[in-house]
């Protein structure tokens, strides 16, 4: 059987482009030291180590008097002192194509779904690129209908906006992302599963995306058992794929789960490269890489589309002051906080509407919608202030009219905000139901 020309050209592009070679001098943990490459490669270059177990791709993470320090995209099993090392361009660029839609790839752009050859586009795209110039970018566009009631009403998402989903473990971050992937209606969805549990990958693709969702999606997967370079690369590759479709004029939704595992991978890389640990063991490069990754998304420029991005953040011990959570919150255009206590009450998505914020408000709501939003939020805040007294029976009905109204609203509002994975509701219906709840509670809504 003849090999298709497109596949031959793809293989040719992956061949070694340089004859510069060095050799392994020592190995300790994840780090491999190579001599003979000091003047040929810089930080971020890729090399292939020819070990007894086969070639292993590595990345340069440090250069010092001892030599060039490499970390692997696989593992160093079988690598010995004296093994040859060659410079390669593999993994520094990918060639996305429209044929990638409906496919599942790894961090290096190789197919994982067992569906054979993955066609490549003609134009190479670096996986690590800079953002568009700030003054060339459009402003954030109109509101997107997520069809998630709590988001459309209280934390609206706009075209080209970047939002963070913050929560502890097991509170519903991945489920919320899955609901967005299923219910939102962008032209292209790019899903980056960074450090994901291997058993959950098929569940996400088959149950959450489904055939219809997968048909307009590219899924980039790096599981938690893979080396830190692969986990970091998965975030870069997913972003590069989103940039490709943005530059084709498409409206792209990028879902990256999770940016915390990206930061953890960068921590392992930085520490192995000899960086000093700082806040909670994270080296300085971690906090430099976070904005470099997330500033690549957002509104496009010229004829390009936009990348609307959501990043999940795993908060250590549900602590919003966790260094990664704190850094990400300052970079993004809003944050959705998932609260464990709300999840324990059985309301999902477990969004805390008082602690969550979209920086696109109030412009993305109409005047009437914003009046409803403010009235409901103020009543919820009033109830939260008095919740402890209400729970222990220290508050007497009739003592405060505003508190009485907030108590009447709390049950219907909780019911309104709850939503199953398959349920959808248009934003207009959500606001109509919110008005009905406020009217029934006797809460006056100011004119918009």
From TrEMBL:
Ranges where the AAA+ ATPase domain occurs: 159-343
Signal peptide range in chain numbering: none
Catalysed reaction, written as an equation: ATP + H2O + cellular proteinSide 1 = ADP + phosphate + cellular proteinSide 2
Biased segments, Basic and acidic residues type: 112-125
Keyword set includes Iron-sulfur: no
Location of this chain's protein in the cell: Cytoplasm
Keywords: ATP-binding, Cytoplasm, Nucleotide-binding, Protein transport, Translocase, Transport
SMART domains in the record: AAA (SM00382)
SUPFAM superfamilies per the UniProt record, alphabetical: P-loop containing nucleoside triphosphate hydrolases
GO MF annotation terms: ATP binding; ATP hydrolysis activity; protein-exporting ATPase activity; proton-transporting ATP synthase activity, rotational mechanism
Gene Ontology biological-process entries: protein secretion by the type III secretion system
Coiled-coil annotated residue ranges, if any: none
GO annotations of cellular component type: cytoplasm; type III protein secretion system complex
Residue ranges, annotated region (Disordered): 112-138
Annotated protein name in UniProt: Flagellum-specific ATP synthase
Gene source species: Marinovum algicola
């Amino acid at each position: 059987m003849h090999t298709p020309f497109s596949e031959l050209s793809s293989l040719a592009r992956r061949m070694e482009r340089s004859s510069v070679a060095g050799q392994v001098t020592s190995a300790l943990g994840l780090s491999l030291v190579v001599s003979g490459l000091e003047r040929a490669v810089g930080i971020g270059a890729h090399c292939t180590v020819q070990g007894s177990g086969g070639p292993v791709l590595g990345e340069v993470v440090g250069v010092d008097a001892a030599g060039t320090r490499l970390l692997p995209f696989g593992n160093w099993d079988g690598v010995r002192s004296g093994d040859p090392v060659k410079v390669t361009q593999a993994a520094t660029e990918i060639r996305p194509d429209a044929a990638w839609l409906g496919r599942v790839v790894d961090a290096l752009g190789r197919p994982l779904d067992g569906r054979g050859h993955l066609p490549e586009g003609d134009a190479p795209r670096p996986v690590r690129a800079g953002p568009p110039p700030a003054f060339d970018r459009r402003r954030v566009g109109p509101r997107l209908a997520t069809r998630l009631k709590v988001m459309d009403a209280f934390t609206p998402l706009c075209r080209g906006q970047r939002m963070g989903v913050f929560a502890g473990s097991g509170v519903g971050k991945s489920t919320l992302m899955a609901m967005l992937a299923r219910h939102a209606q962008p032209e292209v969805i790019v899903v980056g599963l960074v450090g994901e549990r291997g058993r959950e990958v098929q569940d996400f693709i088959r149950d959450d995306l489904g055939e219809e969702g997968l048909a307009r999606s590219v899924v980039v997967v790096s599981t938690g058992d893979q080396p830190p370079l692969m986990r970091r690369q998965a975030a870069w590759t997913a972003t590069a794929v989103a940039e490709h479709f943005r530059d084709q004029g498409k409206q792209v939704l990028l879902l990256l789960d999770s940016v915390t595992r990206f930061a953890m991978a960068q921590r392992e890389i930085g520490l192995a490269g000899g960086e000093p640990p700082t806040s909670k063991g994270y080296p300085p490069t971690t906090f430099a890489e976070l904005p470099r990754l997330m500033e690549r998304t957002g509104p496009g420029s010229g004829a390009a589309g936009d990348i609307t991005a959501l990043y999940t953040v795993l908060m250590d011990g549900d602590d919003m002051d966790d260094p990664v959570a704190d850094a990400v919150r300052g970079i993004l255009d809003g944050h959705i906080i998932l609260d464990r206590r709300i999840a324990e009450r059985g309301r999902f998505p477990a969004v805390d509407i008082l602690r969550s914020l979209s920086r696109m408000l109030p412009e993305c709501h109409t005047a009437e919608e914003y009046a409803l939003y403010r009235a409901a939020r103020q009543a919820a805040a009033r109830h939260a202030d008095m919740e402890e007294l209400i729970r222990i029976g220290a508050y007497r009905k009739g003592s405060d009219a505003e508190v009485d109204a907030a108590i009447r609203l709390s049950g219907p509002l909780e019911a309104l905000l709850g939503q199953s994975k398959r349920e959808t509701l248009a934003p207009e219906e959500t606001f109509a139901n919110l008005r009905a709840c406020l009217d029934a509670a006797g809460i006056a809504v100011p004119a918009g």
